[in-house]
Amino acid sequence: MFFLESRSALTSFYLGLFGIPSLLMLCLRPREIKTLLGEPIIAGFLALCIWLCLSLLWSPPENPDFGMMKIPLQPLMLFAGCAMLLQYRSEALKPLMFCAAIIALVATISYLVPFIKNYAPNQRMIGGGAFTNPLLSSHLFGFFCIYWLCLCISSQRLSTLWFSVPAMAVMLVAVLATGSRTPLVAIALSIVWLSIVSRNRRALAMIAGMLLGSAVVLLLFPEMLGDRGSSHRLQIWQIALERIAEHPWIGHGYDSELRIDVGMGSPFVEPHSFSLGVLYYIGIIGMIPWAFVLVWGLLSSYRQRLQPLFVLASTLLVYGIGAGLAEGGAVLTRPREHWFLLWIPLALIAALNIVNRRGQLAKTRQTQT
């Protein structure tokens, strides 16, 4: 997304390099399907996809777009691909993520430098590539900020620590430059989660630093959190809840349209909350597998908290949950920023669970990066 020109190009890029190869691997190795379905996260996600497709039957349009049934297949291949990657090339995960973080860091610096040079009051950084909205951009900046944060806490290599701290600072500055507040809440939740699963002095130092940094920011820039008020969130949520109450159990359907008018001129098309979006489109029944995969992901990661990859993946998931408290609303989409909040972390956790049950994941404490 840092270099592609559009989301459609991102979809083509994903399908060509990951989605379709994963599907071909499943066709060539059908026995892997049984392994995948044995993982509760993947089984729960599959149940979510099935219910989502069934909801097309009661979607408002007279002629439902059954072509939308292809969309859940794309994140499903993400789960399958990650699982097979870790089963057969588990040693490749860390280098891949590190390379991705380096690329994101270089791209972010290229966005930040001109933004800082030409900064004007109330200006918000968006970035280049396929980024079109500062809030959506902040999801990726925050994702990689959490990655570097995990290295800061877990790494005992001095060289890695010296590199990770400034890298994390750059990504945090990028999040602040977007002017988005929800990612800051998500980062705070991630630090709390890290303090729970890590329980070392460095984690405590990070919490102290977070509190001190927050106090300094509020003292120097008190308008940062208050100028835009609640951004109409309370009104949006109230109207969304009223719509949800119309069909609380089964929802309005995957193909339904949401229009929330709060007097801004143009209506909002999302309830600005992942959970409210799930309830609106697929109801309480659809909410059950959605909530299950999140809870199971965190629970299974906590049980394996001595393994650094589980700590990283679960912290990314906590960040995504925090970021989705007041943003988003689509249940399943084609590849876009929201994938970095829930589906990529969950796919990593599911893959790690499968590999760990097979005894292929080294049971080492957090002494490596």
Structural commentary:
The chain has 369 residues and is mainly alpha-helical. The chain has one domain. The chain contains 14 helices and no strands. The longest helix has 30 residues. The protein is globular.
How do the strands and helices of this protein lay out in sequence?
Blueprint: H1 7-28, H2 31-37, H3 40-54, H4 73-89, H5 93-117, H6 134-154, H7 158-177, H8 182-198, H9 201-220, H10 223-226, H11 233-244, H12 274-303, H13 308-323, H14 343-357
Helix pairs in contact: 1-4, 3-4, 3-12, 4-14, 5-6, 5-7, 6-7, 6-8, 6-13, 8-9, 8-13, 11-12, 12-13, 12-14, 13-14
Q: Strand-and-helix sequence, N→C?
A: HHHHHHHHHHHHHH
Total tally of structural domains: 1
Radius of gyration: 21 Å
Shape: globular
Oligomer description: single chain
Number of strands: 0
Q: Helix share of residues?
A: 55-70%
Spans of at least 5 consecutive residues with low confidence: 363-369
How confident overall, as mean pLDDT?
87
Give the helix tally.
Answer: 14
Alpha-carbon distance between the termini?
25 Å
- Strand percent estimate: under 5%
Tell me the structural class: mainly alpha
Strand count, sense and barrel status of the largest sheet are: none
In short:
The chain is mostly helical and 369 residues long. Helices cover 65% and strands 0% of the residues. The protein has one domain.
